[in-house]
Amino acid sequence: MARLAGKVALVTGATGLMGSVLARAYAQEGADVVLLARRVDKLEELARELRERGSRAACVVLDLADRQALDSAAARAWDALGRIDIVLSNAAPSPEEQQSGTVLSTPDAMWERMHELIVWSPMRLLRALAPRMAANGGGSIITVISTTGVQPTPGYDAYGLAKGTLLLLTKYMAKEWGRDGIRVNALNPGSIVTDPSTYETVHSKAQAHGILERISLGRLGTSAEVIGAAVYLASDESRYFSGQVMNVDGGRL
User: Fold this and answer.
1) Cα 9 → chain centroid
2) How confident is the model over 70-93, as a mean pLDDT?
3) 38, 40, 167, 197: least surrounded by Cβ within 10 Å?
4) Res 1: pLDDT
5) Would you state the torsion angle of the CA atoms of residues 150, 153, 157, 159, taken in this order, to the nearest 10 degrees?
6) Is 159 a catalytic residue?
7) pLDDT recorded at residue 211
8) Has this prediction a pTM greater than 0.90?
9) In sequence order, what DSSP letters do the residues of 82-133 get, joined into one string?
């Protein structure tokens, strides 16, 4: 039996490499999927693919930097398929923006932008959805954090601080919304190569910089290896699991 049969999942950042992998995984497990991102062409392409595989799929176009559009986007996402049981809050800035400098070198505007994209905008979207989810019996919210938000990684300071803030926000939401049947957990995919075509190159660079020495399994992971944790957190199998961090990082110690 499909583990997410009868559920509707909202995936933000759905057109990114990680987002599209997990949206396909949710659909494969029986969920209908609402795809949210700012690239209309990519959204429609992914939605067509999911429909061809037998899932209902809807698109909501939104730039998370647009504060004024968040409430209406939440309503459109809910109305698109009549409910939302799962939210995967996955939207992220570009890799170039993530590596924006140190505490001394990062401009003030970049600190603000990272928090806007990673914390404030997702929080506004989730605040708009949570009362609807509570009235509908609850559900599962999954935030996607980063090892930079747990362990300082020089050069990723603004990104890491925002991800750390998102982690604490996740715990607050879990604490406050649990009685309404809403579980909130963080998924932490660490040392993951999202583009399979670059795996060997990225793996070699990680080895040269000593990164692999910190990973118990001695290698980088792939997007496909995040699927199991993402599906578990979305499914009823994790119904007594909330306010936690699921690390998928190869044992980064």
Assistant:
1) 12
2) 95
3) 197
4) 66
5) -60
6) yes
7) 85
8) yes
9) S--SEEEE-----HHHHS-B-TTTS-HHHHHHHHIIIIIHHHHHHHHHHHHH
